[in-house]
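Appendix B. Chain record.
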Amino acid sequence: MNISYNWLKEYIDLQLSPQQLIDKMTFAGIEIEAVEELGKELRQFQVAEIIEKKPHPNADQLSICLVNTGQEEIQVVCGAPNCKSGQKVVLAPVGSKIGDLEIKKVKLRGEESYGMLCSEKELGISDNHEGIMVLPDNSEVGKDLATQLGLNDVRYEAEITPNRPDLLGMIGIARDLSALLNRKLQLPVAEISEDKTPIETLLSLENTEPKLCQRYLARVIKGVKIAPAPAWLQNRLRSVGLRPINNVVDITNFVMMEYGHPLHAFDYDKIVGKKIIVRRAKQGEKFTALDEETYNLNSSDLVIADSEKPMALAGIIGGTNSHITAETTNIVLEAANFHYIGIRRSSSHHKIFTDSSYRFERGMSSVTNEFISKRAASFILEIAGGELAKGALDSYPNPLPLNIVKLRPSRVHKLLTIEISSEQIKQYLEALGLKQVDSNEEELAFQIPSFRQDLTREIDLIEEIIRLHGYNNVQTFQKPQNITDTHRFYARRRVQDAAVNNGFSEIINWSFGDPDDLDKLQLAPEDPRRKTVKIKNPLGPSFSIMRSSLIPQLLKTALYNIHHGQEDLKLFELNKVFSVRRGQKLANEELQFSGLMCGLAQPNIWHTKTRQVDFYDAKGVAEDILQILHITNVSWLPSEEPFYQPGQAAKIAYKKLIIGNVGKMDAKIAATFNLEKPLYLIDINLEKILREIKTKLPQFQPIPKFPTVQRDISLLIPAKYNWSKVKKAIFQINPKIIKNINIFDEYKGKNVEKGWRSISFSLQLSSSTKTLTDDYINNLIQKIIDTLKNRFSIQMR
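Structure tokens predicted for this chain:
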């Protein structure tokens, strides 16, 4: 459904900009899918006047015109036969575009031309290409064409839901907006003047299918003159995407777009027997439609026929044997209502989809027929002339009574949680065309207009009330509940992905545990993991607590796999652990990641050397997980966990928290779980990490413009100093220049004094603003060495 902004303003005082109107229509339930600014292309053309016309000296079919643009006089070469001096015409100046053609200063047969005089077809206004477009004498020279023709407009393409056929016309849209904006709706009037000739003496009507044709109303107008429609009418049709044809057809299309109800006009003189018959088509009956296609009809199709032939496929498309032509002088104006099921069936079967079928298959109101017939007849008499026969042929066998729907104000308040008076309810609904017919203390009764067939229940009226009141005006009593912690959810997923990318398989075990497993891990009595949550009715001793560590069941799963021949393992579990905290009635739940590695680091492939997993493999996995969570500047310190082999384990410190540990499991403790293979464990407390960080989006880092420099340093340092502290001290010297520090060698033994160790590391240096010189780098290296000597008593090698 196309909606014209300017056309809409004829029915309602819109004090809104085109953009603001989009918001209001959206709140009214009218979804806007596209917006088009009309007249934009025509603004580049301007009204001009031909001051002088003379023949082209070198071409008989061309003329040289001296044209006044309002600012200057220019020469234009024109080939149109109808150009004359004194005419107001349309000029496409140099630099404008007609389609893909850009108008340039050119020479035509030796004469310069500074533009182009345009036809209606070249401007996209009509198909007329017989000559240039000649404007009325009162046109203002220099004005842009869109303004001159009144074509500046905004067209909205709206998606109308199937239950709201009343919104398929400008009046329906305006009615909804008037109710929403609390502005008066200005409805058009239809006044007709009939002559003394009764229509019954000119035409007869027979409706043989009252179920499929619920109402058929016809009028006869004699002596009309077929001609192009007035400019204002053509512009209205173009504003909603319709092509003007002639005055009578354009009027029927105008009224259809105004009220949303289709009409049709027949050539009275082509009706054989002067009788209109509404009937089913005969099986195999031929019908040539206005789209110049011939259709084989079947008995389920409804047609409008005369005594010999079908003249229209009812409610869908007219025929070539009775349509309005330039020779037509007498017409029959049809205003009918066809049942939506029959229209939908025939339209789909024959694959004919028109503006008329689009509306009828959604259900039209039979009550509207009489008014739209008068409205169209009054326009035809005014624009095309003629005499209107007295009365109308009207087949309306089964008028339906208007529905009455009762509404309880108490129900409105209960469902919508708004304070609203009965008077306000009445105001809202009457603005939509409803009429209050009864009321008492408990309920109101409203008569539903025929064009609102979607309003059948109390809840329908309540929906209309809140639509006009505004969903955004309903007070919120409760804060929205966060059903899912998205930060936690996506962090957990990233950790799982990181583990899988490192070759791990995820396992899921019971949340119940065995207290004896904590003894096997040799946890100290004061260890927080000893404060377990006891289950009152356990399945057995092995399931008598809520587990406080994932490691025991991870070890049992590894044993199960080894016994089944799977000795190269990378397993992890990401789940909750439980503990008791002082002063808390409920158990404390924390998210934990635990991983296990054993066997070969990589699959045994013939062209690669195999090796067993080691501490650094496990440490690398932990570093990947921390990196994916944006945890940087961690310290790796010796671990005190009792189940690790001394010297083969490290705890991870972040700020002042211990967030995890990595290490090789002590063989004696592994034996208590019947495991004899070397095992490496990763245990990370994700709960602590998630409390400390927020989701961070990756930050773009531009490629360095200046070269990176690498320098290696080897030194002796007392063994008591941790490398992470040394690294931190180096970064603090100049963090903008020192980009990375990588230790690549550590040595203890011969030629190194006891209590000392030798360390070699590389520095990556780079500047975002300049190239680092040798002098600058040497000074920085010396500053690093001096700092390390003062703080850590190092010796250079």
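Further analysis of this model is presented in Appendix C.
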